[in-house]
Amino acid sequence: MDPQLLWAGGLSLLASAVMTGFVRKFALSHGVIDVPNERSSHHAPTPRGGGISIVATFTVALAVLTRLGLVRLDLFAAVGGGGLAVAIVGFIDDRRTLSVRVRLAVHLAAAVWALVWLGGLPPLLIGDRLIASGAFGYVLGILGIVWVLNLFNFMDGIDGLAACEAIFIAWGAAALSFTAAPVLGVCAAAWVFGAACCGFAGWNWPPARIFMGDVGSGYLGYVLAVLALAAGRENPVAIPVWLILGGVFLVDATATLIRRLARGERIQAAHRSHAYQWLARRWNSHRRITLAVVFVNLLWVFPCAWFATLHPHSAVGALCVALAPLAVVAFAAGAGRAEDPA
Q1: How far, in Å, CA of 116 to CA of 16, rounded?
Q2: Contact 230, 206 (CB under 8 A)
Q3: What is the pTM (predicted TM-score) of this model?
Q4: How large is the angle between the packed helices 51-67 and 73-95, nearest 10 degrees?
Q5: d(CA 195, CA 293)
């Protein structure tokens, strides 16, 4: 790895960790506290908004990498511009609840911004055919970015989970890209992004001393979605690989949404019916759930993504194989199951 990248990653991790400590002190002194309620998965009042450290650290690091020529300007613009918009609306929502319409409007605008800079949805390799989506790709791309952005928000419900998932996806994708067609700009961005998340994760590891907040969770999903699309411009198998790497979150959030919609529930209503939330209550431990996801990622998800990388013509099939058992486990754990009104 380029020594400049090693330094950038190390400094990003350190800066994120230090800044999270300052954010925690500020949150405690200014009453930015997440107080548990009947829908919470935690029991003690905890400061929130720590995701600001990831946003600030990664934005500065990405700007430096762009200045050094390690990241393309269009990728910096796509991630930086839209990402800051998502983070700002998340920060405001952390302080005072915004309407769904306002948040969704900003999310859609950020997705459009990214796709314009990236030139739309990249072609996808299915078997031996390279499929281009054309103008319809913009619609698919916008929906994809907005969904990944929001699913990270949905899945950020217990200590350490979202940060660890973001680290795994970013660093896993960066590592795997070097076994296929290296997308150096995306690799550099993913490496530094994972480092920034890692600096925060030390504070968020169960029992968490600070929460990420909407300012961080939505930003994580947005950045990962945009990086996946950017990687797909140079390697048509990149998107299936990134989807495999994010399979645990993708399956749990999607299965939960489908079952709730089938019952006629309002999707914006607060709930605790994700598979990881059912398991956290059943096991009475955040640490066990987060560690379980880490082990599933390392022992099942990463090998599937590696196979897809080595066999690009079978990548879509590998995606289906990778997600199928995750879906079975999610449904068995209770993803989307109706909660007891009591």
Answers
A1: 30
A2: no
A3: 0.95
A4: 160
A5: 19
Residue 39 is predicted with a pLDDT of: 62
Residue 327 tokens read as 């879906």
**Virtual torsion, Cα 152, 117, 72, 223, nearest 10 deg:** 0
Q: In whole angstroms, give the CA distance from residue 16 to residue 18.
A: 6
Candidates 219, 225, 191; CA nearest to 54 is: 219
Q: Token digits for 217?
A: 């969770």
Which parts of the chain sit beneath pLDDT 70?
1-2, 36-43, 179-183, 341-342
How do the domains of the chain map onto residue ranges? 3-237
Return phi, psi of residue 129, to 5°. -110, 135
Please identify which residue in the block is written with the tokens 């002190």. 25
Q: What tens digit of pLDDT does each residue of 186-199 get?
A: 999 999 999 999 99
> Omega into 236 within 30° of 0, i.e. cis?
no
